[in-house]
Write a structure and sequence with these properties.
The complex is a heterodimer. By secondary structure, chain A is an alpha/beta fold. Chain A has 2 domains: 165 residues, no CATH class; 198 residues, no CATH class. Chain A is built from 15 helices and 8 strands. In chain A, strands 1-2-3-4-7-8 form a 6-stranded mixed β-sheet, with helices on both faces. A two-stranded antiparallel sheet of chain A has the order 5-6. In chain A, strand 3 and strand 4 form a beta hairpin. In chain A, helix 2 packs across helix 8 and helix 4 packs across helix 11. The longest helix of chain A has 29 residues. Chain A is globular, with a radius of gyration of 25 Å. Chain B is of the alpha+beta class. Chain B folds into 2 domains: 53 residues; 188 residues, no CATH class. Chain B has 10 helices and 4 strands, in the order αααβααββαβαααα. Chain B has a 4-stranded mixed β-sheet with strand order 1-3-2-4. The chains are: A alpha/beta, B alpha+beta.
Chain lengths: 389, 272
């Protein structure tokens, strides 16, 4: 099996695997150009486990109460023949009154019909049924379903198949397909938490992209899947749903570019020393020595993979590790994307400080430019601290 | 009129006892307070009896935890009210607002299994009488497999128990109409406000109904006009499916649905 495995599997070795989901694919957008993260994603490494192994602290989980609330809200919104979704889709997506033909493709709904189908087979079955439903939309729009609950699509992430579950697909008979995403964070006075909202938008972009690819496979123009998506949120602190439509075209394009770069991640592994691989995860109740040894080995395996430390990294399970590493290397990235951007090709904090204080003569033209900016900044800082006197 | 006289007496005694109770509690006389509490509860029961005897129309105060109606009967009663297949959630909402009782939706799947078992027994044993009505799952209109979390009554025509693409919406509209009618017929009782609230919640998703407007007649009208656009297609799809079902299925599958047997090999993905 080891012989058959690709470079990513070889790199992961015995470390636990975690199938990718939409959030994780979307994080390719949060950490653009991070080769370390790309390799770990393409190898489907369990990042939470890796992060907590290296940092030695268990990772924070989402509160079970928050999860329950999310499930309850979603349930309420799709109850009674998706009554709330029907009403919101009519208002925001322009669905006509008769466009309420609906079908539930949830795993739990299909289990009634297909007992004994589980796990990967269930995902495969759902992806297949979704494809059939999509084909109907394109060949027989009037007889097709307008609202599909929990559709499932596939996306290729560097050879790894990711299964994506859309909350609801809405289809207007005149040939428009929309992704509807249900979230339980509130929209208070017309505004939602920007961090959560942008995470939702990136996640939804993954759904849209995978659907566009599916449409293309069927032989339809990909733009039947609209990049305008409907996000359903509770109003204020109530449980009453409201919806906003967002055009996420920009994110879909960016995601497409990012995904095109993923196969090249294998080339990153080409330059990594032969035999570099993650250790096996220590078993439950393993001794402190064993855990320390595994953590050390994991750090060693990550070392040859170049990270790109930016502001988006906070949500990554490896954040602590990469930050400490950036600090150790005096990297300007440690000071945030804005500072790193201002310093341009000068990536070392010590060098930057020397340039600012004219302790070091700039060598190249770009270094000279950075030096002049930094010198001006340093002069301003001196004035601010010491005053004009 | 004698009972009216007695009622006044009891209420006066009750007031006196209550006053004494306040005094005993504030002065810290525990023994006296205990005695008075017992007296008061006896008097209250007498008062309630008298009130009911004088005007039987007054609904008795109910408390949900005293409910001893079996789950099966609760579900059947709710379905008879809505007249259409319902999600477990709607059954529980209806029961809560119309009868102030709780339905444990988690137990609904056990109920469905018990019903199927009981039906099978009644077929096997000749001497055993079949029940009048069984709680059965709604069935998909193409494959006749059970629809998750949807219940119906075995006495309904097959076409009503089959769920075609438009059926969830059509059934929801019909249930809303039934509930709006019920709200009108329980007008003036304790249940009116609760049923109205449910009607308003369902009705808010129908075009032409103002949010928070719980006017049953407006909701009925709006639901009817939406039904006008979709019901015909739904009836057609359902009755076609019902004909196929009658031709293909045995008596048990016609009530409790079929299951799709799958033989799959992951390599080929051979799935039917």
């Amino acid at each position: 099996m080891i012989n058959m495995a690709g470079p990513f599997e070889r790199f992961r070795g015995e470390f636990p695997r975690q199938p990718l989901n939409a959030r994780r694919v979307a994080s390719a957008l949060e950490a653009p150009g991070c080769q370390r993260r790309t390799v770990l994603d393409a190898a489907a490494v369990d990042l939470d486990k890796l992060g907590s192994l290296i940092s030695g602290t268990p990772r924070d989980r989402q509160s079970p109460f928050a999860i329950t609330r999310g499930i309850q809200f979603e349930q309420q919104v799709v109850d009674n023949g998706m009554a709330e979704i029907v009403s919101l889709a009519r208002r925001h997506l322009g669905l006509e009154i008769p466009e309420v033909r609906q079908r539930d493709l949830s795993a739990s709904a299909l289990r009634e019909a297909y007992p004994g189908v589980t796990g990967a087979q269930m995902n495969e079955l759902r992806a297949r049924l979704t494809r059939q439903r999509l084909e109907e939309m394109l060949t027989d729009p009037a007889g097709a379903y307008n609202l599909i609950r929990h559709a499932m699509t596939r996306l290729d992430f560097g050879g790894e198949t990711v299964y994506l579950e859309q909350d609801v697909l809405a289809f207007a008979v005149d040939g428009r397909i929309y992704v509807v995403e249900i979230k339980s964070f509130p929209r208070i006075d017309g505004r939602a938490d920007p961090t959560k909202a942008s995470a939702t938008v990136r996640q939804t972009a993954v759904y849209v992209l995978s659907l566009q690819r599916l449409a293309a496979q069927i032989g339809a123009p990909p733009d039947v899947v609209y990049t305008t998506t409907m996000i359903v949120l509770p109003v204020n602190l109530s449980f009453r749903p409201t919806a906003v439509t967002v055009d996420i075209d920009m994110y879909v394009r960016r995601l497409r570019r990012q995904l095109a770069l993923v196969p090249q991640a294998a080339e990153i592994l080409d330059v990594v020393p032969v035999g570099t691989r993650l250790p096996a995860h220590p078993a439950n109740g393993a001794g402190a020595d064993e855990i320390a040894a595994a953590a050390m080995a994991a750090r060693g395996a990550l070392a040859p993979l170049p990270p790109r430390f930016t502001d988006g990294c906070v949500s990554c399970p490896l954040f602590q590790h990469c930050r400490d590493e950036a600090e150790l290397h005096h990297s300007t990235a440690r000071l945030g994307s804005a500072v790193a951007g201002a310093c341009g090709s000068v990536t070392d904090i010590t060098v930057a400080l020397d340039l600012a204080d004219s302790r070091r003569a700039p060598v190249t033209a770009s270094e000279a430019a950075v030096a002049s900016i930094l010198a001006r900044g340093a002069a301003a800082a001196r004035l601010a601290v010491g005053g004009l006197a | 009129m004698e009972s009216a006289h007695e009622l006044i007496e009891v209420v006066t005694a009750l007031r006196r006892a209550n006053d004494a109770l306040v005094e005993a509690t504030t002065s810290g006389d525990v023994a006296e307070a205990t005695r008075l509490l017992q007296d008061i509860s006896v008097l209250e029961r007498r008062r309630n009896r008298l009130v009911r005897r004088s005007s039987p129309d007054i609904a008795p105060a109910t408390s949900s935890y005293e409910s001893s109606i079996p789950l099966r009967d609760q579900v059947i009663r709710a379905l008879q009210l809505t007249g259409r297949p319902c999600s477990a959630r709607l059954v529980s909402d209806v029961t809560k607002s119309r009868w102030a009782e709780r339905v444990d939706t988690a137990k609904l799947s056990y109920l469905r299994r018990d019903e199927a078992r009981s039906w099978r027994k009644s077929q096997e044993l000749a001497g055993r009488l079949a029940r009048d009505v069984y709680v059965v799952p709604g069935l998909t209109y193409d494959r006749f497999t059970p629809v998750r979390g949807t219940v119906a009554l075995s006495t309904w025509p097959t076409s009503l128990r089959l769920i075609a693409p438009l059926s969830p919406r059509v059934d929801m509209l019909h249930s809303t109409i039934a509930l709006a009618n019920e709200a009108q017929s329980v007008a003036g009782t304790n249940y009116e406000a609760l049923v109205l609230r449910l009607v308003a919640r369902l009705g808010a998703t129908i075009p032409g109904v103002k949010p928070f407007s719980a006017e049953p007649r407006a909701v009925i009208e709006a639901a009817r006009s939406e039904l006008k656009e979709i019901e015909e297609t739904d009836e057609l799809e359902r009755s076609e499916a019902a004909e196929r079902a009658q031709a293909q299925l045995d008596a048990e599958a016609l009530l409790f649905g079929t299951q799709i047997r799958t033989f799959m090999s992951p390599a080929v993905g051979g799935l039917r």
